[in-house]
Amino acid sequence: MIHIVIDGYNYISRTGNTGIHGGVDLEGLRRSLLEKLAGYKKRRGGKITVVFDAYNSFSPGRQREDFKGIDVVYSREGETADDVIIEIIRSKRAGIAVVSSDRAIIDEAKRHDIPFVTPGRLREMMAAEPWGGKDEDCGGSMRQGAKKGNPRRLPKRLRKASKTISKL
């Protein structure tokens, strides 16, 4: 079973809700995202964790809530969502996929051979349900240099990432 870890505010800001830091109803945007993800989870199954920044909050510990089967995590005071997601990547390598466009998270996912997708790609995948196509933005890296094997077949690392992402 796949476990999708989503950088919440990164997703919100990258999928058309620009200006989330200036007078926008953040609670409404969070709930809208969580509703969409709840519907997606209902159709596809799996586990979904959404991490939100609470960087300027006064909470000494992480806050957790369950929203229709989705694990929602708010970072503690002085901690970012990136910190929480990187910690998850380091502790649970098998079976997870990360949704973020943040460079630090993507680099950490690559370092641990964890597939990732951008927020825009996840939005497309949710809109094109059921999704069954091949993913070219799957987070694997192709090495430059001599090519070996069947040129019509994706490299093993990309096939593995694509297979994991197709389970999203």
Keywords:
globular, 6 strands, alpha/beta, 6-stranded mixed beta sheet, Rossmann fold, 168 residues, 39% helix
Short description:
It is built from six helices and six strands, in the order βααβββαβαβαα. With 168 residues, the chain is an alpha/beta fold.
Question: Which secondary structure elements does this structure contain, and how are they paired or packed?
Answer:
Layout: E1 3-7, H1 8-14, H2 26-44, E2 47-52, E3 63-67, E4 70-74, H3 81-91, E5 96-99, H4 103-111, E6 116-117, H5 119-127, H6 156-166
Parallel strand pairs: 1-2, 1-5, 2-4, 5-6
Antiparallel strand pairs: 3-4
How would you describe the overall organization of this protein?
The chain is α/β, with parallel strands linked by helices. Helices cover 39% and strands 16% of the residues. The protein has helices at residues 8-14, 26-44, 81-91, 103-111, 119-127, 156-166; strands at 3-7, 47-52, 63-67, 70-74, 96-99, 116-117. Residues 131-145 have low confidence and may be disordered.
Q: Number of folding domains?
A: 1
Q: Examine the secondary-structure arrangement and name the CATH architecture.
A: 3-Layer(aba) Sandwich
Strand content: 15-25%
Which fold name is given in CATH as the topology? Rossmann fold
* Biggest sheet descriptor: 6 strands, mixed
